[in-house]
Amino acid sequence: MTDDKYKTATALQYAGKQAPTVTAKGHGDLADDIVALAKQHGVLIHQDEELSKLLSQLELGEQIPPQLYIVIAELIAFSYVLQGKFPKDWHNIHQRIDFKT
Known about the structure:
The protein is of the alpha+beta class. The protein has a single domain (4-82), classed as secretion proteins EscU (name from scop, 3-Layer(aba) Sandwich), CATH 3.40.1690. It is built from three helices and two strands; from the N terminus they run ββααα. The chain has helices spanning 29-40, 49-56, 69-82; strands at residues 8-13, 21-27. A two-stranded antiparallel ribbon has the order 1-2. A hairpin with a 7-residue loop joins β1 and β2. It is globular, with a radius of gyration of 15 Å. It holds the Pfam family Bac_export_2. Required for formation of the rod structure in the basal body of the flagellar apparatus. Together with FliI and FliH, may constitute the export apparatus of flagellin. InterPro entries: T3SS_substrate_exporter (IPR006135), T3SS_substrate_exporter_C (IPR029025). Belongs to the type III secretion exporter family.
């Protein structure tokens, strides 16, 4: 278990035209505040200690580096699915997503 003073949070914003950008970051109590504010506004939270370490090295306003594009893209895509959002031309060809729930 990690000590709370080492807890970190990094918020990313993705506008769809450029790489996601760091919009907030902090550790300890500030990290708790970032997470609480995100939850208050219905933002999905992903907890990953290793990814958090990498993102915490970025500065506010900085775009994520190309090395993180795939993992962040997968998280964004998964968050869309969790919210029931799909691309206009997407077809559930494999019937893997149950729309009835």
